[in-house]
Amino acid sequence: MAPYDQAPSERLSFLFGANGTFIAELYARYRQDPNSVDASWQSFFAEMGDDGHAILAELNGASWAKATAKVIGAADPDAPPPAKPGKGDKAAPTPAAAAPVVQGFTAEQVRAAQLDSLRALMLIRNYRVRGHLLAKLDPLGMDKRAEHAELDYRHYGFTEADLDRPIFINNVLGMETATLRQIVDAVQRTYCGSIGVEFMHIQDPEQKAWIQERIEGIRNQTDFTVNGKKAILQRLTAAEGFERFCQVKWTGTKRFGLEGGEVLVPAIEQVMKRGGQMGLKEIVLGMAHRGRLNVLANVMGKPFKAIFSEFQGNPANPEDVQGSGDVKYHMGTSSDRDFDGNTIHLSLSPNPSHLEVVNPVVCGRVRAKQCQISGQVPPSDESRSNVLGVLLHGDAAFAGQGLVPETLLLSELKGYRTGGIIHFIINNQIGFTTAPQYSRSGPYPTEVAKSIQAPIFHVNGDDPEAVIHVSRIAIEFRQKFLKDVVVDIVCYRRQGHNEGDEPAFTQPLMYKTIAKQTTTRALYAQQLVNEGVITQAEGEGYVAEFNAQMEQEFQAATSYKPNKADWLEGKWSGLTPAPADVARGTTAVGLDVLKEVGLALCKTPDDFNVNSKVARQLKAKQEAILSGEGIDWATAEALAFGTLLIEGNPVRLSGQDVGRGTFSHRHCVLVDQVNENKFVPLNHVRPGSQASFEVHDSPLSEAAVLGFEYGFSLTEPHALTIWEAQFGDFVNGAQVIIDQFISSAESKWLRMSGLVMLLPHGMEGQGPEHSSARLERFLQGSAEDNWQVCNITTPANYFHALRRQIRRDFRKPLIVMSPKSLLRHKLCVSPLDMFSADQTFHRVLYETGVDLVANDKIRRVVICSGKVYYDLYQERENRGIKDIAIVRLEQLYPFPGDALALELAKYPNADIVWCQEESENQGGWLFVDRRIEKVLTSIGHKAGRPIYAGRPDSAAPATGMLKRHNQEQAKLLDEALTV
C-alpha cells in the first residue's frame, strides 16, 4: 500500500519507521559537532537541550536510543570498537544532512511531521517536569501561579492553527496519534489538576517509569466505589466533628487542632488499608503536635473519653505510676486496627515540641522492629515490607529543621536503612506567623526530599479523592521499591498557631478567606449529593450520629480512670521499674569464657591480609589474654561485647569512625590490605549460635544518628545499643535528642532506654573543641534516677558498666566520659580476674597496693573522676608523697553517697579536696560540691566541706596552646597535692 493511501496515523507511523534512525543519527552528529547538521536542525536540537535522547527514545524506542547511545556515554554492545586514527590523521568532516524523501511525501512534509512529533514530545516532557507549577493546589485560591513559558504550546513553534492537526506520539499518553488540543488537554488533566507530581529528578529508570505509567496510564485513578466514597465522608465527619466538639467544650484551650487538614485522617487510613493488602503488618508513626489528638482518636483508636478526661485535668496514666507526665498533644499510644481482615499494629511515638526531632527516633524504632521480625541483621526486604515508618510534618518545619535532611540522609545507608518512610506534610501554608516566602527559598517545603530522589506528590487538601489517590500510590511505590515517598497535602489552618492565638494580627487577608471557606467535609458531602451517592439528609445524619457519640463519650469521661500504663509490655515484658537501691546486676564472666572470647578476637582467616600494625596489636592482645594481665580498654570493651553476644544479646555500635575507633584503638572491623574485604572477629566467636554484632561507621551527623540509636534502644531492650561521638564535644550537635528524649522520656512518657553514649573526654592539650564532653550539662540534667553518668578509670570497671546495661531487670541510659590518652596508658590496664568471679561495677574506687601511711595519718584525701587520677597518681609518686590518698568517683550520677561515705570515714583527720581538669564552672565540681559536703556531714567528718583544685572559670572548655595547657595542668596538680 502506498503511504498516501494510508490513514493519517498509519502514514505518520510509516514516516517515523522509515526515518527514526536517521533523525537519531542526525541528533548524535549534532551533539558531537553542531555545525555538521543543517542550520534549521541546529536550532531545533538546541531547543531540546539535554532531554533530546529521552525524547527521541520515546518516539521510536530502542533503535533511537541505540543510535544516540554514544552521545550520552553508553556503548553499543553490538558495534565493533572504533578504528583508531593513525598518527597525523584527521577525522573526515561530516556533511550537513537533510531529511530523506519518503515515497509519496515531499522532503518538507517529512520534516514538518517529524518536527511536530519532536516538539509535541518536548511539550509533554516539560509537563512531566514542570506541570506541577500550574497545578491547582491551594484550597484557598490565594496562590496565583504564573504561566510558565515551557508549558505553553506556542513556545515550541505551534500556533492555534495547529491545535487540531494529528501528531504522531507513539503511544505516549496512551495515544498513537493525537491532536495538539488532545495532547494539551491530557497533560493538563494529568499534571495540572488537584495533584502536582515531581518525579523527573529520579535517576532510577524503573522507578521513574513506574510513576509515569501510574500517573499517565489508565491506572491514574483510584476506583472509588459508592461505599468507598461514603467511608471517606464518614472519616472526614469524624475528623471535623472531633475538632468542633472540643472547640465547643473547651473553647480556647490548646489542642493544635487539625481543622483545615482533616483529610489527613482518611489519607493515613488509605496507607494502612492498601499497605495491609501488600503485606504490611505494623506502622510506627511520628508527628508534631498539630492534629495529634485527632490522629490519636480517629486513627490510633484512643478512646475519646480518655482524651476528654485529660482535657478535664486528669492524668493520662494510673495514679500509682510516677513521673512528670506531659501535655496531651505530645503523648503516644499503640493499638491494632483491622482493615479487610488485615490487622495493622500502630504505635505513635511520643515527642516534644521540638517538631522534627522525632524523625530519626521513629526510623530507629522501625529498623529494630524489622530486625526482630526477620531475625537477622540487616533485616530482610520482606521484613521491611512488614514494618513501615510514617512521619507527619508541618510545612515550615520540613523546610527549616536541619534534622529533616539529616534523617533523609540515613534512608539508603546500610546500617540505617528502613525500606522507605512515607512523609505526609500538613502544609498549612504558614509557620506560626511566618509566610512561606519568608520561611523557605524554594516554591515548596519539599525541595530537600529531592536529595534522596524521593517522588513528591503535591495535592489539594480540599480534594479528598485526590489525596486518597496519591496516598495509595505512595504506599504502592514504597512497598515495591522500599524507598521514601513524600505527600505534600496543601491545606490551611483554620485556627491560629493554637486555639488561643489570633492569626489575623499577621495574616489578615488569609484569615478573611479562611473565615469564608467551606470545610472539606461540607465540600465533599455536597459533591456526593451532586453525584447521587448520598442524599442531603444522609450526609447530615452522619454529623448527628457522630455528635451523639461525642456526647456519650464526654459523659463517660467524668468517671474515666486509666487502669494500666502502656509500658513494659511486648519485648519489654519481664523488665521492671528501677529499684530505689543499688542494682549491680550479675556482670562477671567465667575465665574460660573470657579466654574463648579474647582469643577469638585475635583470629583472622588464613587468607586475610592484616595490616602489620594491627597484627602487632592482635598479638599483644592475645598475649594479654593468655597471661591474664594487662587487659587494656579496647580489649575490655570487646570482651563485654563478645560475652553478651554468646549469651544471646545483640550488640549495635554506631558513630563516626567507630569500626577503627577515632583513636585507632578498637579495630573491631579489620580491612584486608590487598582487596579491602572486611572481617569482624566478634561475629565469629561462636558462629551459628551467637547473637549478631553490628558496627556502622555513621555519616557525619550527630543528631540524626543519636536519635536513630535511641529509637532502636526503645524497641529492642535486649540489645546493647551504643552511640560513640568522634570527640566528646561533638555531642552538642545532638543536644536536642539528649534534652528532650534521653534525659526525660521515662519521666514524661514512661519509656525506658538502655542506650549507651560514649563521649571521648579529657584535657590533653588538643584545644577547646577536642577536650570536653561537657560533663556539667549531663550532671545538670540528672534527676529522678533518669540516667547514669560515669567517668571510668579502669578497663575492668568499663567492662562491668557495659554488661550491667543488659544484666539488670530495668534499663537506664548510660553516659560514659570515655578516655583518649588512657586508651594506651601503661597504668590503665586490668588483670583478667577482675572481669570474673564475684567482681562487679564499682561506683567508687579506692587504691590498693599503694604504700601509704596509716589511715589516721592521712592528711588529705583527693577525690577525682576520670583521667586526672593517673596524673595525680604519677605526680604523687614523683614527689614521694605518702600521706595523701586518692579516691575515684567512677559514677557521678546517681551519686554514690553511701559508698563515698564508707571511704571517707577511713580518714578522720584528712582534709578533703575535689580535683578536676575542667574549669571551675564546668566539669563535676558544681554538682559534687554540696553532695560531698552532705556526705561529710553525715559521717561527722571534721573537714566539713571539700576544697576545689582545678582550672579557674573559663568560657571555653580548654586552651588551644599546649604550653599554657601544661602550665595549667601542673598548677592544678600542685594545688591538689600541696597540704
UniProtKB/TrEMBL annotation:
Assembly and binders: Homodimer. Part of the 2-oxoglutarate dehydrogenase (OGDH) complex composed of E1 (2-oxoglutarate dehydrogenase), E2 (dihydrolipoamide succinyltransferase) and E3 (dihydrolipoamide dehydrogenase); the complex contains multiple copies of the three enzymatic components (E1, E2 and E3).
Native source species: Niveispirillum cyanobacteriorum
Name of the protein in question: 2-oxoglutarate dehydrogenase E1 component
GO BP term (any one): glycolytic process
Record keywords: Glycolysis, Oxidoreductase, Thiamine pyrophosphate
Coiled coil: none
Keyword DNA damage part of the UniProt annotation: no
Known cofactor(s): thiamine diphosphate
InterPro entries: 2-oxogl_dehyd_N (IPR032106), 2oxoglutarate_DH_E1 (IPR011603), DH_E1 (IPR001017), KGD_C_sf (IPR042179), ODO-1/KGD_C (IPR031717), THDP-binding (IPR029061), Transketolase-like_Pyr-bd (IPR005475)
MF term (GO), any: thiamine pyrophosphate binding
Keyword Oxidoreductase carried by entry: yes
